[in-house]
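quick one, two chains, predict together pls
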Amino acid sequence: MLAVEFSVCDEVFALFGASGCGKSMTLKCIAGIETPDEGRIVLNGRTLYDSERKINLPPQLRHAGYLFQNYALFPNMTVAENILFAAHGTPDEKLSRLRENLARFNLEGLEKVYPDKLSGGQAQRVAFARILSSHAEFLLLDEPLSALDNFLRRRLEPELAEVFKFYGVEILVSHDGGEVFRLANKVAVMNAGKVEAIGTAQEIFKRPPTLTAARLTGCRNISAARKISDDKFFAEDWGLTLTAQKIPDDLRFAGIREDSLSTDADENIFPFEVVRVVEDITAFDVFVRGEGAPLVWRTEKSQRKPKVGDEIFLRLPSEKIFLLNR
Amino acid sequence: MEINPLLITLKTSAVATVITFFAGIFLAYVVCNMKRGKSPVDAIIMLPLVLPPTVAGFFLLLVFGKRSAFGQFMLQFDITFVFTWKAAVIAAAVVALPLMYRTTRGAFEQLDPNIISAARTLGVSESKIFWRIVLPNERAGILAGTVLAFTRAAGEFGATIIFAGNVPGVTQTMSTAIYAAVQANDYDMAFKWAILWAILLATFSMVFIFAMNAVIKGRH
């Protein structure tokens, strides 16, 4: 079951959700690869699909620049043939587009290479060159960077931003918080086939509005919660009574990022016992138990490494607690 | 040694292979792109492989015979099928079709659907997708299907002998000639035919395997 509604306007829009939430299917419906049961898809005043008016443009006429997760290059054609095959315009225009895009994406010298001999980064650049040479009017990106290793990912992100300059509307699908935060202006959080919340990337990541958003943005400490009084609530999993402001009456969950826990002295301070310490590249992930389920506290390595069994006092800063009612 | 059965076999199986080649690819592509009703269509096309060839031949006799509506209709144009060379071709084509169809369909299903979707979003027409992307990428599978269909058509016996008969110089193929020779206790003749046929087909399959590997390797 998939039921989504959103509008995109001159921006990089991210559909952000866990795998299987329907975000890729949404993208395919926009491109015309899949047909929704009912609804409407309009682009810049052009109706691509309208179940009531029985309009369903074939993908060939929708002019979407779709970047597939595996890039979907034509295996029987060389790099140059791949780009030329989908190029738009007269034969002369096609050739000039080919040359222009080979140069833009640093693909000179690879013209005669077949896709199975390309690295992931090269394949992605060919896919972009192919889209830019085509008649595409907007971009649809399915997890554009998730198939690449971290190093390549960082190198290709600026290239992606470069491609974005050519298009007004870009819709990006991803489960990767970092990718979404770095690339998108606007974010729609999707869960179980529905859009739960829409906001700017800053809003969604700073104050996740829903449980799904909190999980997707990497919040590792989440507990069921219920309101006790105007400034107090009980975090059921952690077994802690916490102070906070503006607690909604229908509070259901509370979350706090692992690096928001601190050792300062102020309100919401509790004693915890260290139960596990995981050493990461630049920080320690310290699992601490109070009255209930353990929380994760991320602390820099410049600090002394906590030992299992240590008792420490940690603060849950009330302004950094996410209070979620859904 | 009478050379006719060999020529008739090569001719009927060649024509039957050409028919199954196009029909098989067409049906495979259509069935692959069907949204519903795939299974019943698939089952019907595969029927000649499931049925004993003699049963298939008998059904062909019923459908194309002079007493059927179709047979009556064709009779108006002075066209008959039973015990003619046409019947030998039809029998061979019908029993060979499932092999061509199934192998080609398997090849089509191997193709990453994203590649087809990518071509569609890039504005490539459906016919161009078929001729320039689907066929070239799946030529090894199509070639394998063609060879299976040809060898099946060349070795066809059951449906042929019922539908096309064993008329020397008209519908007598290698298989039916060997059968007739054995029936007539002419073991010398049967042996010569059998050896000749075995050598020819073995050579053919050898050539095919080399060609196949060249196709797979020769892509770059």
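The longest helix of chain B spans residues 187-217.
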